[in-house]
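Protein of interest.
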Amino acid sequence: MERLGYQSYQIVENRQVALNVYRLEAEGPTGMAARPGQFAQIKAPGYFLPRPLSICDWTPSRLIFLYKAIGGGTQALSQAHPGERLEILAGLGNGFDEALAGENPLLVGGGLGAAPLYALARRLAVKSRVTVALGFQGARDVILAEEFSALGAKVLLTTVEGDAGQPGLVTQALEQLPAPSQVYACGPEPMLRAVRRLYPQGWYSLEGRMACGVGACMGCTIETASGPKRVCADGPVFKGEELLW
């Protein structure tokens, strides 16, 4: 995928799929080769700084995102219509290491953190018995549960409010599961910390306050076991043993 500059994409779909969550599909240059866990920088209409969004899935000519309209930039993005064009810099970050998945990988997604796990599940389901554990606040927030099931993955759904799936936190539900061959997780930091306590050697996708998205501004730097690392360029996916939690 082109990484040297922003490219023009045309919006194909931009619709609400859960509470304040939108599905954006945009068509652009062909020959894309993203990896699960990578992200893109999208210039929202009327805003100078781009917004980092995890890539949910892709085709040779399209990118698919799930994002939450919670700030000015993402709210402006949610108002964009099919046919309009967006400037996107895609294929950023290091992504998940699929080669280490093993026979029964576990994918853990909290809230919007489920989005970058979808493409990973799609690829792993071809050769592995995938389990996906999803945690949300309530039924109105649930995303991708049916889509993961359609891939053939075993889905464990939890909600804090108990109105969909099992009641409680997703990390509580993990204790019911047999030991996985590998763990991949994305979600709020408190959830990631709790998952890492159970699986120290998993792969964890972090969020960061990114401005450039390519490691130039250093604004998303964190301390790791091997020194300072940039979430955008050195991550967003880190090995569990690298995280100082």
About this structure: The radius of gyration is 17 Å. Residues 19 and 140 are 6 Å apart (CA to CA). The chain has a mean pLDDT of 93. Helices lie at 72-78, 115-124, 145-150, 170-174, 189-198.
